């Protein structure tokens, strides 16, 4: 059998770019992209991407050149996920929530050949250029509003003009020769350190896309609402995945409640992805029940079971996934089991809040004791670090070999997330390793304490961090934002009430020793809660006097003994 060689007909490099010409051939007249009053078919989208690829090559984009984009979810950003790699380049979709300094840091590090900027972000881009050496400045291309052009320009290059004058006869799309070549460069959110550039391969992006479509059960012709920013891990690979299924991309410039609910009704949305923070946006709008169920994939911070239960009452059918930039998006999916349908709603929501089982694209996912690299027992209680291995794991951190080496150990990628494995094999995150609260030698999961707080009907947002304690070393401190109807300043909900509520839900030693009410939790540019800022604030706080008078009788004996040392 070894005498059978690889041939061009039976060994083709894997690349998500191949989904586009297939869509143009198979789904030619189906709607591909909708944005306001503009709509394209897959034949048209393919034609536009081929012309844009030619224009990029004419501007000097070569193999492995970075092309940066600062834009909301628009047809242009969607098209560039195909056109840039078709030109041999590497797409770098920049977080639109960054300020000029943040954008400048990425430009200095990525050194893009071109930068596309939406007309709404021209000021941010031009200010960012001031922080980049003139010799390293990329060519700047403005993306005007496709529905109602404004005429905004910076220089001569404009997106639709490039599409119009691209000449595929002179510059045909470049074929992917090596599937290990880079297809995308994404920067981490940098909550505790400088953001790192994560590099995806064509192979990894292809496998992640196919695997997620299969595990989420996305059939042909989905209507996908872009409520998730495309700059988040290339839209969790759905920039390519919707093309693979011949679906329609419904683009909205901002995921407001009005925009999302209108799109669901007007276009018959079947699928959407959201970060958990958007659940509150949907819940606060108080709309009528949905005309039909909408499949929702959520990831990011572990969503509390109480929050999942409330959002499903609106008609959203939620699937929980776990992932990270370094894993090309989702790395685990909470695959639903039919027998769970018979369970009461709170139990179903608790099961959905788990992170689930390994993504199909991975060769393995586990929870290990990093001291021994042994797998933790499947008892739902023993903590370890979640580790991954497989082709969908990043190539590495761009221009950062030290960080790349530190992220891999013994054939595994270390996620930095602490979790447990339940007897059924489903993984549940308990915390980020840096967020675990070690109180009297016992580990306390901030996620578990937050989940208890979210069960209170007045709580809109909650974050729990470590606070100094004179006996236990550190103890939980909760920062809580109340729902609007409770946040009137009249004191309807007190610290004592929330503490008592938590005592009825979790072990007493896990109960917050301090509750700080805030109008809104601080978040970074990707919407993640900035726990580092909360930890800094908590360092200056002290537990309530009533909690310092006597040892907690629910604490393990080892912790009581430690307190005497």
From TrEMBL:
Matches recorded under Pfam families: AMP-binding, AMP-binding_C
Signal peptide start-end: none
Record carries keyword Ligase: yes
SUPFAM superfamilies assigned to the protein according to its UniProt record, in alphabetical order: Acetyl-CoA synthetase-like (SSF56801)
Segments of skewed composition (Basic and acidic residues): 535-553
Domain AMP-binding enzyme C-terminal span(s) in chain numbering: 448-528
Cofactor needs: Mg(2+)
Catalytic reaction equation(s): (E)-4-coumaroyl-AMP + CoA = (E)-4-coumaroyl-CoA + AMP + H(+); (E)-4-coumarate + ATP + H(+) = (E)-4-coumaroyl-AMP + diphosphate; (E)-4-coumarate + ATP + CoA = (E)-4-coumaroyl-CoA + AMP + diphosphate
Domain AMP-dependent synthetase/ligase per the UniProt entry, residue ranges: 22-398
Family label: Belongs to the ATP-dependent AMP-binding enzyme family.
The protein's name in its UniProt record: 4-coumarate--CoA ligase
Organism field: Triticum aestivum
Source species taxonomy: Eukaryota, Viridiplantae, Streptophyta, Embryophyta, Tracheophyta
């Amino acid at each position: 059998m070894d005498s059978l060689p690889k041939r061009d007909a039976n060994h083709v490099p894997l690349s998500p770019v191949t989904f586009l010409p297939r869509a143009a051939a198979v789904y030619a007249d189906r709607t591909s992209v909708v944005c306001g009053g503009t709509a394209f078919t897959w034949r048209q989208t393919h034609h536009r991407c081929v012309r844009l690829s030619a224009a990029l090559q004419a501007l000097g984009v070569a193999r492995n050149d970075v092309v940066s984009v600062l834009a909301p979810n628009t047809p242009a950003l969607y098209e560039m996920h195909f056109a840039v790699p078709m030109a041999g380049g590497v797409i770098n979709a920049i977080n639109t929530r960054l300020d000029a300094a943040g954008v400048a840091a990425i430009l200095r590090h990525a050194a893009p050949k071109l930068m596309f900027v939406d007309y709404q972000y021209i000021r941010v881009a031009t200010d960012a250029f001031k922080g980049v050496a003139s010799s390293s400045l990329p060519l700047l291309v403005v993306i005007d509003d496709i529905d109602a052009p404004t005429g905004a320009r910076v220089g001569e290059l404009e997106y639709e003009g490039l599409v119009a004058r691209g000449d595929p006869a002179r510059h045909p799309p470049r074929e992917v020769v090596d599937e290990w070549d880079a297809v995308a460069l994404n920067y981490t959110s940098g909550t505790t350190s400088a953001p790192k550039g994560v590099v995806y391969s064509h192979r990894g992006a292809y496998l992640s896309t196919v695997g997620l479509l299969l595990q989420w059960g996305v059939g042909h012709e989905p209507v996908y609402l872009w409520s998730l920013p495309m700059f988040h891990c290339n839209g969790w690979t759905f920039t390519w995945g919707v093309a693979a299924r011949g679906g329609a991309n419904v683009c909205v410039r901002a995921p407001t409640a009005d925009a999302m609910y209108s799109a669901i009704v007007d276009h018959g949305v079947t699928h959407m992805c959201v970060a958990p923070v958007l659940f509150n946006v949907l819940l606060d709008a108080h709309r009528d029940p949905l005309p039909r169920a909408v499949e929702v994939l959520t990831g990011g911070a572990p969503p509390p079971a109480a929050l999942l239960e409330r959002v499903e009452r609106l008609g959203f059918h939620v699937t929980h996934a776990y992932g990270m930039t370094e894993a090309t998006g989702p790395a685990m999916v909470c695959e639903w089991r039919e027998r769970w349908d018979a369970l009461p709603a709170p139990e179903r929501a608790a099961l959905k809040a788990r992170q689930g089982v390994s993504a199909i694209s991975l060769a393995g996912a586990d929870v290990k004791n990093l001291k021994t690299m042994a797998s933790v027992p499947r008892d739902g209680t023993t903590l370890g670090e979640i580790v991954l291995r497989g082709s969908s794991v990043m190539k590495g951190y761009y221009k950062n070999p030290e960080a790349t080496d530190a992220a891999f150990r013994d054939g595994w990628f270390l996620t930095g997330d602490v979790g447990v494995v339940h007897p059924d094999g489903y993984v549940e995150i308990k915390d980020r390793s840096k967020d675990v609260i070690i109180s009297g030698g016992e580990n306390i999961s901030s996620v578990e304490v937050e989940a208890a707080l979210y069960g209170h009907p007045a709580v809109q947002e909650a974050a729990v961090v470590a606070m100094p304690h004179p006996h236990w070393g550190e103890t939980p401190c909760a920062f809580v934002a109340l729902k609007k109807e409770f946040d009137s300043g009249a004191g309807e909900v007190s610290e004592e009430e929330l503490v008592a509520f938590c005592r009825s839900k979790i072990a007493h030693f896990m109960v917050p020793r301090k509750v700080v009410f805030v109008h809104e939790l601080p978040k970074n540019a990707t919407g993640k809660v900035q726990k580092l800022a909360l930890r800094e604030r908590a360092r200056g706080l002290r537990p309530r006097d009533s909690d310092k008078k006597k040892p907690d009788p629910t604490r393990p004996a080892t912790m009581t003994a430690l307190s005497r040392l």
